[in-house]
């Protein structure tokens, strides 16, 4: 198994004191605006223009981030994209009022032999940060402090009919709070085509062609290559190239799929952002269609919620029916378009869970399907994508263990996703 520490620059909340004037940190003042809907533990980011000395730093960049009136640094992460644009990420505890932050950036010095030895020793006890481990040609794990949080299933194997069935689509699993048991479903069980966190459309049209990319009838979603994988104290992100192919193995859609997992305190065990960029692979437009029951971006809970999947000591079926919550008491899902979120509750492995599914306002109009007792729910957008154009779909999934968040809390989470707080950046005053 291959461990990917980062594909970009990572900033850890540790900064050695400068030894001389030439190593004085580059200091910035950051002001996070008050959010329209106050929230808690909100991921925020700021675009940072790195000075030449930092942009060319041979061993990376160290960053120390502190809040107003605080001496202790908070976890932060500097991510530099392929275009060399840098963003500083951190988690703001509350967004009900403006908050001020100070970031001090400096080139990371070349590590000494003692520091290298200390780093090797630290690997035995994982820090409270994300890491990415790639079991090549099979799956990629996102871990936090050594525990699995999310697993990207991307194997494609046609060596046997069984393996072809198990690997005809890509999807993501979510783990429980201990990182030991899956909360999501894989192949088999009730509705074998339901797989964890997944995207599909039962009636996809490209020119004269038709394809069922929900039940996956003679079609495939095949992982092509990993475009990016990075991890640090605040987030882990991986981006994959995925090809949707028809029954003749011809490409219909070229997808760029990005999943970002953010650091969150308990009882949240996973805050996952899903971004799919869908581009027709040929010269014909592609229509994404189906119905709320058989299309869209979905979360499918573990098969143990299915009817009769488990039995008690007397041989009687055990069931744990999923329940659903919405922004208001009375919501008609057959009529409601552009619902901002839906949530599901269930009991699994003796623990209670709540999963919030958040819809981004930039997505095409669509409806939620959120009433199945076995725990499959999600949002169905309908769209036609012209040749040469790209449709972007964006969603967030938040999983809590042990308690169900209030509607106000779920409203605030979705608001932070739909309209994150603005961050103003300016150089700090120098003496």
Brief characterization of the structure:
The chain is mostly beta strands and 431 residues long. The protein has helices at 52-55, 113-122, 161-166, 407-418; strands at 2-4, 26-32, 40-48, 61-67, 76-80, 86-94, 99-107, 130-135, 139-144, 147-153, 171-174, 197-201, 203-206, 209-211, 220-231, 235-245, 251-262, 268-280, 286-289, 295-300, 310-311, 317-318, 323-325, 341-348, 351-359, 366-369, 376-381, 383-385, 391-401, 423-427. An 8-stranded antiparallel sheet has the order 15-16-17-18-29-25-24-23, with helices on one face. A 5-stranded antiparallel sheet has the order 1-8-9-10-11, with no helix packed on it.
Explain what this protein looks like in three dimensions.
With 431 residues, the protein is mainly beta. Helix content is 7%, strand content 45%. It has four helices and 30 strands. Strand 15 and strand 16 form a beta hairpin. The relative contact order is 0.15.
């Amino acid at each position: 198994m291959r461990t990917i520490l980062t594909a970009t620059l990572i900033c850890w909340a540790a900064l050695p004191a400068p030894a001389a004037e030439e190593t004085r940190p580059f200091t910035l003042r950051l002001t996070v605006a008050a959010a329209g809907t106050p929230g808690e533990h909100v991921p925020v980011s700021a675009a940072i223009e790195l000075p030449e000395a930092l942009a060319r730093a041979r061993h990376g960049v160290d960053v120390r981030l502190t809040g107003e009136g605080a001496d202790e640094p908070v976890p932060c992460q500097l991510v530099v994209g392929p275009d060399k644009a840098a963003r500083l990420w951190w988690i703001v505890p509350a967004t009900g009022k403006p908050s001020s932050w100070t970031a001090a950036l400096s080139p990371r010095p070349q590590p000494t032999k003692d520091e290298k030895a200390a780093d090797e020793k630290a690997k035995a006890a994982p820090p409270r940060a994300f890491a990415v481990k790639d079991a090549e040609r099979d799956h990629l794990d996102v871990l936090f402090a050594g525990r699995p949080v999310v697993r990207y299933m991307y194997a494609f194997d046609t060596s046997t009919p069984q393996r072809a069935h198990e690997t005809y689509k890509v999807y993501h699993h979510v783990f429980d709070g201990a990182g030991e048991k899956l909360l999501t479903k894989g192949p088999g069980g009730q509705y074998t085509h339901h797989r964890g966190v997944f995207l599909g459309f039962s009636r996809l049209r490209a020119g004269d062609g038709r394809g069922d990319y929900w039940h996956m009838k003679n079609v495939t979603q095949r992982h092509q290559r990993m475009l990016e994988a990075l991890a640090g104290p605040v987030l882990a992100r991986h981006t994959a190239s995925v090809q949707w192919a028809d029954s003749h193995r011809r490409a219909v859609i070229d997808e760029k799929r990005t999943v970002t997992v953010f650091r969150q305190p308990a009882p949240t065990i996973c805050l996952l952002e899903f971004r799919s960029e869908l581009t027709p692979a040929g010269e014909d437009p592609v229509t994404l269609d189906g119905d709320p029951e058989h299309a869209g971006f979905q979360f499918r809970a573990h098969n143990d919620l299915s009817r009769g999947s488990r039995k008690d000591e007397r041989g009687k079926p055990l069931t744990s029916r999923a329940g659903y919550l919405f922004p208001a008491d009375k919501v008609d899902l057959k009529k409601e378009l552009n619902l901002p979120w839906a949530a599901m509750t269930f009991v699994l492995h003796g623990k209670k869970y709540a999963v919030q599914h958040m819809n981004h306002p930039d997505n095409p109009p669509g409806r939620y399907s959120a009433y199945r007792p076995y725990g499959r729910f999600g949002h169905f957008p309908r769209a036609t994508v012209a040749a040469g154009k790209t449709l972007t779909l964006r969603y967030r999934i938040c999983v809590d263990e042990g308690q169900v968040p209030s509607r106000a809390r779920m409203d605030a989470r979705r608001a932070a996703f739909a309209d994150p707080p603005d961050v103003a950046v300016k150089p700090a005053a120098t003496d």
